[in-house]
């Protein structure tokens, strides 16, 4: 029995329903809370416990040393030999590799991009330092070619930026779902879109001009976060339309839990299992985080795919909402004259008739 039916029974009877009828609903709610909490903590803590590099892209400006690095590192790294230190640095700046080893007669230089995140930079640095030592050219200098802004020295602003926007969009969609009996679908969708964009504007302004934690232009950040918020809120509406009350649980797990945990904001996608890395980049939080980072530090390199991913979520969600709305209308029977004549009178009419009968 649903919560609504139990509430209706209680209101008509004037008493609370027996515990046996309420207990299944209460048990389900507890199980849902346990599932969401367990998934949230399990993903975040589990993924950070012992991250392992998978095909982490690095460059080595020496063909012989690159071959040795490729053989030593195996599947943990994707070693790219380059002809010069200048070419290697350019790969780092364009986000094609996470770090580069630049051997020279007086030792090697390790070039990194702090904007790639601490987890990826640390893993790539550790691997290349071992390669340099084994090759007899130990690292004597390090260069951070793309450092994080001083207002985000810990490199966690991107996570909170995306998580806050995702959470706001999810909550807004749930509120709109609860108003299903009071407002038409088109009204709820319009409010959802407007509210999502408004939330994105607030987040972008606070993170950018106010706190200075996001170097990208405010307009660009607003655009990316608006796509993220609309994608999450519209998809939440669509999932709930398809699955009913269970859609709330599914949306929570997909967007606020799995999506944020695999976005690359806390643990680089290069250090996630390949399947989770692919899922993370395909979900709205991961796509948005990648786009904001690209526009902030790497001149938009790789942002097109992320923006297309966000747009696809919006298009698919809109299509699902249209189809489910059409299906609902076609299944709803239209009352004919006989149906209207057979419709029972309201309680007030029945009470008035009964009162007149007693007086006559």
Output the helix-strand order.
HHEHEHEEHEHHHHHHHHH
Q: How many extended strands? A: 5
The best one-word shape is elongated
What's the total helix number?
Answer: 14
Whole-number mean pLDDT:
86
Rg to the nearest angstrom? 28 Å
Q: How would you classify the quaternary structure?
A: single chain
The main sheet comes to: 5 strands, mixed
The amount of beta strand, in percent, is 5-15%
Q: What is the share of helical residues?
A: 55-70%
Poorly predicted runs are 1-7, 9-13, 345-360
Q: Which structural category fits the helices and strands?
A: alpha/beta
Sequence of strands across the biggest β-sheet: 2-1-3-4-5
N-to-C span = 43 Å
Question: Your description of this structure?
Answer:
The chain is α/β, with parallel strands linked by helices and 360 residues long. The chain has helices at residues 3-13, 19-49, 63-73, 85-93, 118-134, 157-178, 185-210, 218-243, 246-261, 274-282, 284-297, 303-331, 337-342, 347-359; strands at residues 56-60, 77-81, 99-102, 108-112, 139-144. A five-stranded mixed sheet has the order 2-1-3-4-5, with helices on both faces. Residues 1-7, 9-13 and 345-360 have low confidence and may be disordered.
Short description:
The chain is of the alpha/beta class and 360 residues long. It has helices at residues 3-13, 19-49, 63-73, 85-93, 118-134, 157-178, 185-210, 218-243, 246-261, 274-282, 284-297, 303-331, 337-342, 347-359, and strands at 56-60, 77-81, 99-102, 108-112, 139-144.
Keywords, please?
disordered N terminus; 360 residues; 7% strand; 5-stranded mixed beta sheet; alpha/beta
């Amino acid at each position: 029995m649903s919560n609504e039916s139990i509430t209706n029974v209680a209101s008509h009877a004037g008493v609370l329903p027996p515990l046996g009828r309420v207990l299944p609903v209460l048990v389900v709610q507890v199980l849902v809370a346990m599932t969401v909490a367990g998934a949230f903590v399990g993903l975040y803590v589990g993924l950070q416990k012992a991250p392992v590099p998978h095909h982490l892209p690095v460059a080595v400006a020496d063909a012989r040393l690159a071959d040795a690095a490729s053989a030593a590192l195996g599947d943990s790294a994707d070693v790219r030999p380059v002809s010069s230190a200048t070419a290697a640095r350019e790969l780092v700046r364009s986000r094609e590799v996470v770090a580069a080893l630049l051997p020279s007669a007086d030792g090697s230089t390790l070039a990194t991009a702090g904007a790639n995140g601490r987890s990826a930079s640390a893993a790539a640095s550790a691997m290349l330092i071992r390669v340099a030592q084994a090759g007899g050219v130990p690292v004597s200098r390090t260069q951070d070619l793309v450092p994080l802004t001083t207002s985000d020295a810990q490199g966690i602003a991107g996570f909170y930026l995306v998580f806050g926007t995702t959470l706001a969009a999810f909550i807004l969609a749930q509120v709109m779902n609860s108003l299903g009996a009071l407002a038409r679908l088109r009204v709820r969708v319009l409010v959802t879109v407007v509210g999502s964009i408004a939330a994105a504007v607030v987040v972008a302004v606070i993170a950018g001009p106010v706190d200075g934690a996001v170097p990208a232009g405010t307009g660009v950040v607003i655009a990316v976060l608006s796509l993220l918020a609309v994608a999450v809120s519209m998809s939440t509406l669509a999932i709930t339309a398809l699955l009913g009350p269970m859609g709330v649980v599914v949306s929570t797990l997909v967007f606020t839990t799995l999506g944020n945990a695999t976005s690359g904001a806390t643990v680089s996608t290069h250090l996630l299992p390949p399947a989770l890395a692919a899922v993370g980049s395909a979900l709205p939080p991961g796509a948005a985080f990648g786009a904001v980072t690209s526009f902030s530090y790497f001149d938009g390199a790789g942002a097109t795919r992320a923006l297309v991913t966000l747009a696809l979520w919006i298009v698919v969600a809109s299509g699902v909402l249209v189809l489910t709305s059409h299906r609902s209308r076609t299944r709803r029977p239209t009352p004919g004259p006989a149906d209207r004549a057979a419709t029972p009178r309201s309680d007030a009419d029945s009470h008035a008739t009964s009162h007149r009968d007693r007086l006559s």
